[in-house]
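We give the entry.
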Amino acid sequence: MTLKTFLLACLCLSVCNGYSQTKTDSILNKSSKVIPTKGAVIDGKLFKPGEKIEPIVDTSGVKNLKDLHEVAALDKKWLEELYSNSLFDTIYKSVTELDYEPVDYPELPTDTLKARLERLNARTPFNVEYNTSLESVIKSYLKHRRNSIERLMGLSHFYFPMFEQEFDNQNIPLEMKYLAIVESALKPRARSRVGATGLWQFMYGTGKEHDLDVSSYVDDRSDPIKATKAAGEYLNRMYRIFGDWDLSLAAYNSGPGNVNKAIRRSGGSKNYWNIRTNLPRETAGYVPAFLATMYIFEYAKEHGFQPERPDFQLIQTDTVHVKQMISLNHVSEATGIKIEELQFLNPAYKLDIIPKVEGKIYSLRLPREAIGTFVTNEDRIYAFANAEFEKREKQLPELASASANTEIRYRVQNGDYLGKIARKYGVRVSQLKQWNNLRGNDLKIGQRLTIYSKNHGASSSSTSTKKVINSAGKQTYKVKSGDSLWTIAQKFSGVSVQNIKDWNDISGSKLKIGMTLIVSK
């Protein structure tokens, strides 16, 4: 009885499956025209039997345009390198939280590490001696931070030549260039929790001591060359005090007072590794992080690192002294260099504006191929900048009292950055920063930005006038009380909300009573 029931169930299931497949195929072979026996409501509109439903045409024409995937991926990686603070945060955390526990990394035997450190010690004035703590840090970096170190190696191709040149001028060990990696992860606009800023992490007061200008427009702590010069001066001061580069490094991080206290508490010892336990926690991990970074960079090939080179080498750029106030956006428009590249080359200008201040000289760094264009057309470029600044001054009062229709609230999406948003709305990066009180370039997904755009935020009256003038031969509709884009779309056959937005250049959903809308192609 059980077997009979089972066979009967299988037979029924087989028949059902066959019927289902046949039914699906028959639907595919039928005409796509649907003729109901009674009227049907579709999208809020009543259609009679047999009435043809016109398809809604996408009038935007640019919705499916795509970039080259490979190039877009490279752009994204490069922009992340320029503007992300993730590496800086990672390094800061790693220095303060070193635990020196043994790390299993069989690719680097202890004997091999000892031999390499001995060779490294022979060619540098730093005390690069093997100990288990340093071995732990080196292996931890190799095992857990390989990708970030590879990215730092790529950035180093741009920054290290200028570091080496300045340190050579000041008779400082060239290996000191690795300190900038520990300090800032080679981010010229990096800012610590206590306000230390730039590649070499100067506090405001210390920067002033070394003639680093900090104003509303300029922060020399973010200028690679000026800040490196100041870092060299400070390191030389520390070396004159201690006569030891390891202790100079420790003093650079925590100040000479803390180093002197550690020496006293260690019974007068002046070897960094002997006083390390008496230093502040961050400084205790500071020199091991520096030495580990030095080792990995010096033996990068042996460990199979393949860094990506940046778009620019320092030798491929040059500087020109600016004669009048100008913004990086003006330079971008005049030379065709992307604003993001100009920001990378000129990180000291906080608002992307190079000021003109009597008694001070400000430089603009450009790719070499753009230097000729800029110098040849200097007068025209400055005239253009002046005209733009005059327009801005006239517009500011209007923006301050802008109506709801001239203001756009934009929500930051994945892949957005300031330059991209500025181009989309026809505004400048410096304006986005000013309107939203942004000090840096970092954005968060979901963050709301206020934008005043001529193209996307024109007042209702100007929009209305423009559309009436261009509405010849087209059907129009005057907005009444209680109307919305959706209710208006329902009044006209085959018209969607998106159609109305496209035909009338509307980005939001707000309407004003009396404005005229085009409601046909």
Observations:
- The domain at 405-454 is CATH 3.10.350.10 (Membrane-bound Lytic Murein Transglycosylase D; Chain A).
- The CA atoms of residues 464 and 512 lie 10 Å apart.
- The chain has a mean pLDDT of 77.
